[in-house]
Amino acid sequence: MSDFSNYKFGTRAIHAGAEPDPTTGAIMTPIFQTSTYVQEYPGRHKGFAYARGKNPTREALQKNIATLENGKHCLCFSSGMGAIDAVIKLLRPGDEVITGDDLYGGSYRMFTKVFSHYGIGFHFINMTDTANIEKYINNNTKLIWAETPTNPTMQVIDIEACAAIAKKHKLMLAVDNTFASPYLQNPLALGADIVMHSVTKYLGGHSDVVMGALVLDNDKLYEQLAFIHNSCGATPGPMDSFLVMRGIKTLHLRMERHCYNGKRIAEYLKQHPKIEKVYWPGFEDHHNHHIAKKQMRDFGGMISIVLKDKNIDTTFKLASSFKVFSLAESLGGVESLINHPATMTHASIPKEEREKAGVVDNLLRLSVGVEDVEDLLADLNQALGVI
User: Fold this and answer.
1) Sheet of strand 96-100, all strands in order from the earlier edge strand to the far edge
2) Does the annotation mark 201 as catalytic?
3) pTM for the whole thing?
4) Residue 248's beta-bridge partner residues?
5) I need a surface site. Which of 178, 227, 298, 324 has the fewest CB within 10 A?
6) Which tens digit of pLDDT belongs to each residue from 48-61?
7) What phi and psi values does residue 98 have, to the nearest 5 degrees?
8) 52, 264, 277, 317: which is the annotated catalytic residue?
9) What integer pLDDT is reported at residue 1 of this predicted model?
C-alpha cells in the first residue's frame, strides 16, 4: 500500500488508506459487506476471519484516519461513546480520572452513571489553567481526559502542558479532538497518548453516519485497545466505513469553509445588541486564545452564544425561528445546526453543575455549516428579530 504520510493534508485525506481494487481497478474502496471470510484450513486465512474483528473497508478507513492524525494506529467504533467506553475499560476499580468541568453531556453521563458504579473515580475540574490539574493527582490517578475546544463553552485546554503533567506523573493523556478535527489540531504531535473523535461529526461531515475513532502511536496500548475493540464488539459496519471514507475526501475543503463562515458569524454575533456573550476561540479576548492560536491552525465553525434575555421561553423562541439553521443535536455536518445544550446534548448533567461551567438556560450552540455565509447571516438576523 502506498504511504501518503509525508504528503500535505488534502492529499492524505483523499488518498491515505485507499488502493485501487486489485480485481477491478475500482478507485473507490469497495464495501465488503460480509460477516465472515473463507479460510484455507482452520486457523489459516488472509488476515480476516470474522467481521467484528476486521473488515477491509474499515481497515482502509482506519489507515486513513491514522494518517490524518499523524498516528501509527487507529481503531474505529460504532459511535464516539463506544470509543470512549473502550478507553475507560483500560482502567480498574479504584483508578481515578481527571477531566474537565465543561464536558460533552454523553461523556459526563457515561463517567458518572456507568463507570462510577464500577469503582472508577472522576474529578471534574477547570482545566483551562493546567496548574490546577496537579492538585487532583494522587496514587490512584491513571488518566487525564481533555476535551478541547470544549462542548459547548469552547474552553481551550493546553494539550502540550497536559502532556508534560501526564508524563511527569506517568499517566495517560486522552484528548477528545472532535470539535477541532485533524485538520485544525493534532494532539499526538503535542504529546497526547490517545486521540478520540466522534467521527459522526466533522470527519463524516454529512450527518449520515454514527461512528467513533481512537488514534495512537503506542504499540502496547494499541494491543490492549484492539482486544477491547474486538471482545466488546462496538465495531462499525462496512457501509458506514465507506461513507466516512468518502466524506473525509472533502474534509480539508469543508473545514476551510466552516472556519471562514464561523469567523464571519462570530463577528456578527459579537456586536449584536441582543447577545450578551459569544464563545469562539478566535477572539483575542477569548480565554486561552493564545493557546488556541498556538495549537490550532484556525478556530473552527463551533460557536456558542448567551442571550441577554434570560427567559428560557425567549431562548426557545429563537431556537425555533430559523429557516436555514436546523434545530438538532450533533454538529460538524455540511448543514448549519442550532442546539440548546441545557435540554438537549447536556440534559444529563445536573443543572447546578451545568451552570457552574457556564451552560446556562439562555445559551445556544451553533454548528456553522458550509452554506453561503450571506444566507446564514440573513437567517440569524431574521431569527434574532423575532425575539
Assistant:
1) 73-77, 212-216, 194-198, 172-176, 141-147, 96-100, 121-125
2) yes
3) 0.96
4) none
5) 227
6) 999 999 999 999 99
7) -105, 125
8) 52
9) 65
